[in-house]
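> run fold LPXTG-motif cell wall anchor domain-containing protein
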Amino acid sequence: MKNIRAKFAAVVIAAAALVALPVAASAYTPAVPPAETATLAPGASAPFTFTGFAPGEPVTFTLTGEGVGDEHLALVKAAPTSTQVSKTATADGAATATVTLPTNATGTYLLTSDSPSTDAETLAITVAAAGGGALPATGIDAASMTGVWIGGGALLAAGIAVTSVAMIRRRQADQA
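> ok
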């Protein structure tokens, strides 16, 4: 009886730990530095304006990511590279760069503005999921499961054969 109580207590403690574990895990909130982000669909263009520059000063925009080219800020998908374009700040201290992503863009692009009077600022441009946010295709197809089905069938057949032989031997031993 004492052994059953100990086992029951262990099960109750384990169940309580499983219930309390998600609460304890969610109590920690990591500190994430504030970041400027934007989302842009593959193949889309958008202007991004940075402010705080001196009127009329040169502003250098640098775009880093897959397929960055000179003709556009983003041209084709390739190894991460970067390109620069210079703009002049307006009278109110703003400068705008237009980013055009390739139709097969993925991941994140970084647009950085830099000028003589300000520290560099970076904007992370995340590529929106293709297909309007549809879930990506995951998992396996039926053709790749052929080996599993054949192996499982062979194991099942072997198990039936072993069980049948054991039953026949037991009957023969009982009759003798």
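The helical segments are 2-26, 146-175.
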